[in-house]
Write a structure and sequence with these properties.
Length: 154
């Protein structure tokens, strides 16, 4: 058994550092605070309950069309349930005008921190395109990674 002072430390090997730290360091300690002290406020501090919604997953102008009756068609879905903001991961090549975004955010308002998180959503698609089509998206992916490392002061 591993301890830090008298506190048990969970040292289960994880495939990456983030998973380990979130689950076995912060998550474990937060759960103990809840169990021992019943203090849910520290666990919920500044948190927002994010209800997952069905996302297209690859939303850009090339995946939107209309039929002969000018009814909208949404093509090539890569659906999953997630945070609605993740739909903007393809905004770098979406080809949508400001009226699209204005209308969207009237229905689903931007949450605090949106502009900080958008890079994470873009990063997925840049890495996906790098894997599919070669290094054309490498510099964009590296730029986002560098931005987050600066935020984290790493």
């Amino acid at each position: 058994m591993y301890t830090c002072c008298f506190s048990t430390q969970i040292n289960t090997l994880c495939s990456d550092w983030i998973e380990f730290y979130v689950e076995h360091r912060l998550g474990y300690q937060l759960n103990l605070v809840m169990e021992i002290f019943g203090d849910s406020a520290i666990y919920e501090k500044d948190s927002v309950l994010i209800e997952p919604c069905l996302l297209h997953g690859d939303l850009w102008s090339g995946n939107i069309s209309c039929d002969e009756n000018v009814e909208p068609l949404i093509l090539d879905p890569a659906c999953y349930y997630g945070y609605n903001e993740a739909e903007f991961g393809m905004s770098w090549c979406a080809g949508f005008g400001t009226s699209f975004y204005d209308s969207y955010f009237q229905v689903m308002p931007k949450q605090v921190g949106f502009h900080t998180r958008i890079g994470v959503y873009k990063l997925y698609h840049y890495l996906n395109y790098y894997n599919l089509f070669g290094s054309g998206c490498r510099s964009s992916a590296m730029s986002i990674i560098d931005d987050y490392l600066r935020i984290l002061h790493v």
